[in-house]
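User: I'm new to structure prediction. If I give you an amino acid sequence, what do you actually give back? Let's try with this one:
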Amino acid sequence: MAKIYHHIVFLTGAGFSAESGLATFRGNGGLWNGCKIEDIASHAALDDNRDNLLDFYNRLRREMAGANPNTAHIALTELQKSYPGEVSIITQNLDTLHERAQSGDIFHIHGQINQVRCQDCDTVWETWEDIAADTPCPACGRTGVVRPNIVLFNEPVFCERQIKQLLRNADLFIAAGTSGEIPPASVFVQEAKLNGAETVALNLTPPQNYRYFDTVILGKISQTLPAFTAKLRTLASEKR
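Assistant: Good question. You get back a string of structure tokens that encode the predicted 3D arrangement of the chain. For your 240 residues, that looks like this:
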């Protein structure tokens, strides 16, 4: 890390949200603990268990509505505003904390908790209110067809074309607050590295795909990421 990068790409995961008080999906105390995944995160549940699926994400939406960005979110925003190169954010998180921190160029590969989609006409709209099976689509008026606009198991992630382009253009790729075990995000580092990017991981523990990173920095994201972005800004100012 001794140059001005043309395009920095961040991949952010559950570690970002956890430090804003939001529960992760996996691990001790995870949101999926005590739940049958097929009841709340599968496409089949939309047909067989829609009420339970909607209730689960209604509770999650209410929780995420009350969360605030932490110092890591703010550090990314400051980097985007001051860095001479381009800075993009790929996030695995459903919350909108990057947006609340006023970051831009954000790609939600798993969707957003405050978006709803009609399965019939594909209309997408934003709401922080609860939705139910009888909630009508504002475009076509049908009921029984609304769902959270998020990626369920065995569904493709969003923004695939844009992500491939970002990984192709990146000369610095940083995975922050992610375990490195959930595909396809877990292989983004390999794609970036094959395209010549330097690779850095910031996490509480070494990610499962740690061998693909040139540098691994351990610690709380709220502490390590602000220090890391400050170093990027300092190096850039020295090189100007």
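You can read the tokens as a compact description of the fold. Here is one thing that stands out. The beta strands are 7-12, 86-91, 106-108, 111-118, 124-126, 146-150, 172-176, 198-203, 215-218.
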